[in-house]
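User: Can you predict the 3D structure for this chain?
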Amino acid sequence: MDKSVSQENDKLQLAADSPAASSRHSDPWKLLVVDDEKVVHSVTRLALEDFELGGRGLQMISAYSAAEAQTLLQQHDDIAVILLDVVMETDHAGLELARYIREELGNNLVRIILRTGQAGQAPEHEVITRYDINDYKEKTELTRQKLFSTVYTALRSYRDLSALDNNRRGLLRVIEASAAIFERRQMHAFYDGVLEQMIALLYLNRDAMLIRASGIVAEARERKLQILASAGKFTNFEGEVSCDAFDQLTGERLRIAFENKSNNYGDNYWVSYYQTQAGTEQLLYVSARDNFSVPDIQMIELFVRNVAIAHDNVELIDSLRDGKGDDGSGR
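Assistant: Here is the predicted structure, written as structure tokens:
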């Protein structure tokens, strides 16, 4: 067994001159192939060389034994799909690995597709029900097209489940912050949680931010923006910034929305503008892999509206506190 080969990560992407290549998401889906036959890895790589889902290519990680796969799974917690052989170092090595993934690692998101050359070793009904396998294929039936379709379907399922899980975690953060929502120190936790929830629901890449306009400072036409929450490439932005602090395209999109006091959007981005009754202006900038749908737009608008109103309430409470005297009477 060639260990140097077994740990190589082969990125299966379209050629550079493909029209879709430039729009591809930077992070490929991770596919773990666990099989003790080198030819299986080579054939799989060839069959999936043009694979793409949601603008993302495929990164194939190879393991030639169940023991080696355990090590790789500990190193990569974002593997989406596993193509798993049954008979390797033992007759049931693949099944024991499936049990390890579900029970010991507690990983219920990764999609496990069992590929076996000896169907009698692992009866389909027993395997699927006992080991929480997501699909069962005999190697002889997996043509190139069927393998492509099987992996594509599994990845879509993984994507949906991951979005739901991210949404759940984001919602938990919002709930945790809700008990102290009117405390200033909790506002960023609230913003971050709702932003994470919305990103997960919309299948967005993590380039998004929520900002509050602070009016005109320094020069008459220079707008300052207060960063409330951010994700992806905007994570390092904090405090007050101007539109010029961002890349030219992002800055121009923000400037147009702010100066026109209206939404500004395109096929794969959205800048939402909202102003509360108290005059608070807020912008939400998000970028997506695919075009926004009507439900997407409604969710963005609702998000901005609710957060702006919440911020108004916090400012009202703060102003009441500041107006009180030392004895709390306000005199």
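The longest helix spans residues 144-178. The chain is about 40% helix and 20% strand.
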